[in-house]
Design goal:
A hairpin with a 5-residue loop joins β4 (146-150) and β5. The protein is α+β, with helices and mostly antiparallel strands. The chain contains four helices and six strands, in the order ααααββββββ. The termini are far apart. It has a domain at 52-169. It is 46% helix and 19% strand. It has helices at residues 2-18, 23-74, 82-85, 102-106, and strands at residues 108-109, 112-121, 127-136, 146-150, 156-158, 168-169.
Length: 170
């Protein structure tokens, strides 16, 4: 009888030992999760940067297209600033054209800062040439490439500094 009690006690101990995970097993699982996270997080950050860069190039394309529409619609050259290209479609005029969204017109969108500058005007004060730049808000975090366009509509890119008219077209 004593032997059967001892056998049942040792069987219970083995059974209870098999019910949980050992510390080593838990540490291995945590290590695997950390390795997967170490691989996935940098890829996620790079993909977010690339998405911001693609959005910046597209936003410059939108600005160029809006400038052409503005110029042909109102016949006074290009706009003096980005806010004239934005606005509501309820009352479209040369000061409130409704061609780009108000977020882009504010100069900050998708991790990029947009700078619009008038280069030349005609004797009547109408804008005849402009430049638009898109630069990462935080370099190597919100994006790496810098973009540029002007009245030609060609978008140019520079990986290190603010892009200009001599940089490589994309």
């Amino acid at each position: 009888m004593l032997r059967s009690v001892q056998n049942s006690k040792s069987a219970n101990r083995r059974k209870s030992a098999r019910q949980g995970f050992s510390l080593i097993e838990l540490l291995i699982v945590i290590a695997v999760i950390l390795i997967i996270a170490a691989i996935a997080i940098p890829n996620f950050i790079r993909s977010r940067e690339r998405a911001n860069e693609a959005a910046a190039a597209q936003n410059l394309r939108n600005i160029s297209t809006a400038e052409i529409v503005y110029s042909t619609t109102y016949g006074i050259g290009y706009s003096a600033d980005l806010t004239k290209l934005s606005g509501t479609l309820l009352t479209a005029d040369q000061n409130n054209a409704g061609l780009i969204d108000s977020v882009l017109a504010s100069g900050l969108k998708s991790g990029y800062t947009y700078t619009y500058a008038v280069v030349t005007t005609d004797p009547n004060g109408n804008v005849t040439s402009y430049t638009a730049n898109a630069d990462p808000q935080i370099a190597n975090v919100s994006g790496q490439s810098h973009f540029y366009t002007d009245q030609t509509g060609v978008i140019r890119s520079n990986p290190a500094v603010s892009a200009g008219p001599t940089d490589t077209p994309i």
